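Lab meeting, item 3. Inverse folding demo.
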């Protein structure tokens, strides 16, 4: 069992994009971090190495958040390595586009399985292990307010996540645990940029009053605040970190 960090965080989807930035930021804040990944072991180990090279503490843990046995193993890995879990950030998510008329049920099921079922399973496990004063943060999306064609299943999955957040906060009454969501706007990740022309990227960026895309670090800063001591009075809320995009 590794020691030396007073607080321990699980970050799902922590190998790439927003999740990676969150993992790195929480390590910088002094937390020991469990970097969860679904398939890209090399990226997860690279994140762990970056954290350790900077003097932090981290391990990688493989698991699909939509699978109960995998979720149990992620939490078990954290307890085995660090003896406790204080913060859970569920950043793992998938997105594919398609109209409702297309009836692409496999794509719909995949987004529900990871985005919604995964959040539910992570909450269920967190409720059993988080100590008084713990923190849970889910990732939603500011695209909920846009109602763009082709985003129906994705928006449905994330809107449901926000519903779970509010209920979960109430269910943990009396334990001092906060439950919140961060809803990013467009963020310059590999997933977002793939397949988009420079003109389209610029058009999307200019929709926000701040006239730029978010960076993964912008979202990580918001999560850092919510799980830190200064964020202890924020509970059952959705922080729309989007530069005014909504």
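The presenter then showed the designed sequence:
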């Amino acid at each position: 069992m590794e020691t030396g960090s007073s607080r321990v965080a699980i970050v799902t989807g922590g190998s790439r994009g927003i999740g990676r930035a969150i993992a790195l930021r929480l390590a910088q804040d002094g937390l020991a971090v469990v970097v969860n990944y679904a398939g890209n072991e090399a990226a997860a180990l690279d994140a762990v190495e970056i954290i350790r090279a900077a003097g932090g503490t981290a391990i990688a843990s493989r698991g699909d958040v939509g699978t109960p046995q995998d979720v149990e193993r992620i939490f078990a890995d954290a307890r085995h390595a660090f003896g406790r879990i204080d913060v859970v950030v569920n950043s793992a998510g998938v997105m594919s586009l398609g109209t409702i008329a297309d009836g692409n049920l496999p794509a719909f099921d995949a987004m529900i399985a990871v985005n919604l079922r995964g959040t539910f399973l992570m909450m269920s496990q967190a409720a059993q292990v988080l100590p008084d004063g713990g923190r849970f943060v889910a990732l939603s999306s500011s695209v909920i307010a846009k109602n763009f064609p082709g985003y129906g299943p994705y928006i449905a999955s994330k809107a449901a996540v926000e519903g779970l957040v509010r209920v979960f906060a109430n269910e943990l009454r009396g334990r001092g645990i906060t439950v919140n969501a961060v809803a990013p706007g467009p963020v310059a990740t590999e997933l977002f940029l793939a397949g988009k022309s420079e003109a389209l990227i610029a058009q999307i960026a200019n929709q926000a009053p701040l006239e730029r895309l978010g960076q993964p670090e912008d979202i990580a800063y918001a999560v850092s605040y919510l799980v830190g001591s200064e964020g202890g009075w924020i509970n059952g809320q959705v922080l729309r970190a989007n530069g005014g995009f909504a």
